[in-house]
């Protein structure tokens, strides 16, 4: 993977990780209820599910690349359009009710925290669709696929761990106060909506 493409991957990965979602809410809940240090188990569970999603997408896209590069490019551009769609939808979204915090005890076993994080990410069908749109933007069909997917997965996992633990878990209380207000939710929706649209357009142009 070329360094310029890897930088785009790292930037897109950071944007995805910073976007509030089920994983971020689960991490904040774990940090508040089980403590900052033990919240890492939930984050690792979420990464395990992320790896499963990438493997599912990689196997399907790998077959597609081997059989039809034209079809691969069609999916790549459709993926960029999907990112733009996500951005527009998030930009236009209305404030939602405050998320209910999970009743987690500080004595909860690490495996239980890990397992909950795993299922939070795995049981999200939109994640597979998203990675199907996201992954082809950084894969070059003419180069070895295994190494590219390994770099992509490792980059996304490391960035997501850092963001989840040192941003969402560490700043759980203050960040949660922002997202609990309608104004805070509106601001975040507008900002991340514009960023998603920008990333989708850039990825369609620079690959």
From TrEMBL:
InterPro entries: LeuE-type. GO terms for molecular function: homoserine transmembrane transporter activity. It is a multi-pass membrane protein. The chain crosses the membrane at residues 48-66, 118-139, 151-175, 187-206. Keywords: Cell membrane, Membrane, Transmembrane, Transmembrane helix. It is found in: Cell membrane. GO terms for cellular component: plasma membrane. It holds the Pfam family LysE. This is Homoserine/homoserine lactone efflux protein. It comes from Pseudarthrobacter niigatensis.
